[in-house]
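Morning!

This is the sequence you dropped in the shared folder:
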Amino acid sequence: MGFEIVITSDRTMISNHHGKEFLGFVATGPPISIPEKLWLYLCAPKPKVDELGRPIEAPYGLRKIEAALQNAGFNAAIVDPDHIHKHLDSIKAILIGHHDFFAYGPPS
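The structure's back. Tokens below.
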């Protein structure tokens, strides 16, 4: 089963940061003096997902968009970026979420 509309975000935004909210701020900086894989593990671990690649936890804003699309009758779901390949045959649109498109936020 694939989704017509896939909603996703980059790993630093879709992670739950080990349940420590402020580790998300560390993920906005560059990985200085440590390997990037270690930096990603510490600051933005991969989320737990189901067999379709849907994260168990996802950002509230993405969940609201997902719910609105589903209520409007669309076959839409949030999918972890590492699992988008599972839905390539059925995707008609990919929505990419972020929190600071215009670089007005504190990390910018």
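Headline: The first helix runs from residue 11 to 14.

More detail when I'm at my desk.
O.
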